[in-house]
Please model this.
Amino acid sequence: MLGFILRLVARLPFLFIAGRVYGPDIVGRYAIVVLVIEVAALFATLGLKRGLAQALSSTDRPHAHVVWDAMVVALLASAVACGVLMLFPQAMYPNSEIIGLERLLPLVVFAVAASDVSLSALAYRHNIRASVTARAIIEPWVISIAAWGFSFVSARDGLILAYVVSMVAALVASIVPFVREYGMPRGWRPRPADIWALARRNAPLAGADTIEWATRNVDRFILGLLFAPSVVGIYYMAQQVVSVPQRLKSSFDPILGPVITQSLAANDRAAVANQVRQVGFWITGAQAALLVVFAIPAEGVMGLIGPEFVAGAGALCILLVAEVFASTGAVCETALIYIARHRNLMISLCVLLLQIALSFAFVVIARTQGWPEAWQAVGPAVALAISVTIGSAVKAILLRRLLGASVLRVRPSLFGAMAVSALVGAAFTSLPARYEWAELSLGIPAIVATYLFVIIRFGFGPEDRSLFRKMPGVDEATLPVMEKL
Model:
């Protein structure tokens, strides 16, 4: 929870600097570059971000040997991905000229993949502090500071240079605790057969990770094919605001994965269902709160980034709704990748293909109707909302059948909290123009306070309140491993 809050606070300066200093055209170019680098790094991890916990829980070898095997796998795959991007650099810059050292940018893939494997290994030892430090403090604050500093050096490449610096800083923050925790492996020799078997076993996990990532980013790539970089930049900034609630789910990943694998190892499927229900409610509740917080004053939020970005207010609202509906499926997938990985992979693939088809269809329909470009650019966001809603429903049904217990918890207090806080937000947005300053400075805190009061007072049970206690009782806790932290 602390990591999520820190990410929320640290992300805001970057959005402001990128929007106000660089503008939508440069942000759009940066968005495509980061998109390609991230998908290459995702391939390079070969599913180890979530598969490493299962490998460690089912091996008789020293854990230090297993994690260093995983590191070798990630680095070898990174070399392949890096080589491909260096041979075809136009994939990173489809709409702009390649200048100078930009061909060397794929080297960042090594840093991202090694950092992901290190943090996954630390999470198995219940070291979540390293993830919070690297991902919620070092990475976002370094990119914000570096983006501001590099703006005085290069208005064209400042954002990309800042991204490189932040990834290297996050790698250092990940590797140092990794080596302290596992040490240098004594008597370890890489086992090619074991490494290949590890990569092969994790192929469905790698596919699931890639498809989940693609579901959240393919809309940006489609916009890059159909629209100018400035449109991509505006949409990307809306995505970044939405990524604040989306990162709440990733904040639970480091501990939820090991907890589920341990419950499955004990064949306690009822505990897995309970864990999915509990975390699913927390994430859905938080994302619903942020939906109200950001959607009611959407134009003000996007205008804070820069006046050119107000056109992205509609996309922002739709993407926020999509995240609320996607939360159940995202949490269910955390269990499905261990007990029905191939079926989960097929469902995710079908959802992605549906999203791609709907995205192109909606844009084509909008253009034939002669709608404004800003309306056309919302088409991929609508396609995302529809597809992830369908995917969440299918995954929840499948997981319920496999576990023999419900994995979805719906509480009327959630809808009540959203309604009451929305009324408070609407009151602030309806103020006269001379009080526009109060829409964000006073309205957002009022919305958050109202939502939290209603949901905690009427929606939280003992198991929910145990999350916020330093030493919860054993009978109250839903996530046993979290009690020990």
